[in-house]
Amino acid sequence: MRSTTPDPQHETLTTLNYRITGMTCGGCVARVQAALDNTPQIDTARVQLESPQASITFAPGQSMSAAALAAVVHAAGAYEISAEPDQAATPNETPKAAAEASTGWAYKPLAIIVAFILGVSLLAQWPFAAGLDGTIWMRHFMAGFFLVFSGFKLLNLNGFADSYCMYDLLAARWRGWGVLYPFVELGLGVMYLLDLAPFATNLTTVIVLGFSSIGVIRSVLSRQTIRCACLGDVFNLPMSTVTIIEDLAMVAMAGLMIVMGG
């Protein structure tokens, strides 16, 4: 794969935006991205689910016919690329996507799911006769979080693994980690729910989510336009600081429970 490090020579290169139909998840994006990256005539390519689906920069003095470009994309799967560049598209999000991201509307599914988990974890101690125990609440919240989020990932395990490989440092090198990750979350959820080996469970959470956060932070800082895989490929959640806060909050709660001896 060629380096995407900015080069002054790129100022004279030709970048064209295309629409690609047939892509439905991060796995599709990864396959098309790999096909374009391995094409000699292409200097750099950026593929995403949002419009424009592909921004292609051709190498100096290089170009490709519509048929040749279509053959490259079709070789990656059942995908079709527009015969002509999309002049109306810009390298940024569509107005609808940009508006949703700016207002937080894109995170509505995530907010609703977290709110339900929060409510159930609080109601688990009803009627609060002895007051609300913060440690028990955190344990129940962590259990609900891992059980629910792993469930969404398991709905399409391969799709999640393909999406996760796009930003997680370990999964990018070993896809098997992307396949195993939902089961690790499921196991942690059961451990929290049953209050088994609390120290080992909390320490594992700190290590697993702490390491995962590194890839998320790197992707957000590099302004990559990719889908967050926290809810699998069921919802189109953009990667952003919301994802960082989500991961680090779980790390903080697990760390707090270790300090509290829970």
Task: Describe the fold and architecture.
53% of the residues lie in helices and 9% in strands. It is mainly alpha-helical and 262 residues long. The strands form three sheets. Strands 1-4-3 form a three-stranded antiparallel β-sheet. Strand 6 and strand 7 form a beta hairpin. The protein is elongated and about 75 Å long. The termini are far apart. 33% of the residues are buried. The N terminus is likely disordered.
- Strand segment tally: 7
Mean pLDDT: 82
From the alpha-carbon coordinates, what is the Rg to the nearest angstrom? 21 Å
Assembly state: single chain
Distance between the termini: 46 Å
User: Would you list the SSEs in sequence order as H and E?
Assistant: EEHEEHEHHHHHHEEH
Shape: elongated
Strands of the widest sheet, in order across it, are 1-4-3
- Indicate the structural class: mainly alpha
Number of helices: 9
Produce the secondary structure layout:
Layout: E1 15-18, E2 20-21, H1 26-37, E3 42-47, E4 54-58, H2 66-75, E5 80-81, H3 95-103, H4 108-123, H5 134-154, H6 157-164, H7 175-194, H8 198-221, E6 227-228, E7 237-238, H9 241-259
Antiparallel strand pairs: 1-4, 2-5, 3-4, 6-7
Helix pairs in contact: 1-6, 4-5, 5-7, 5-9, 6-7, 8-9
Brief overview:
With 262 residues, the protein is mostly helical. The protein has helices spanning 26-37, 66-75, 95-103, 108-123, 134-154, 157-164, 175-194, 198-221, 241-259, and strands at residues 15-18, 20-21, 42-47, 54-58, 80-81, 227-228, 237-238.
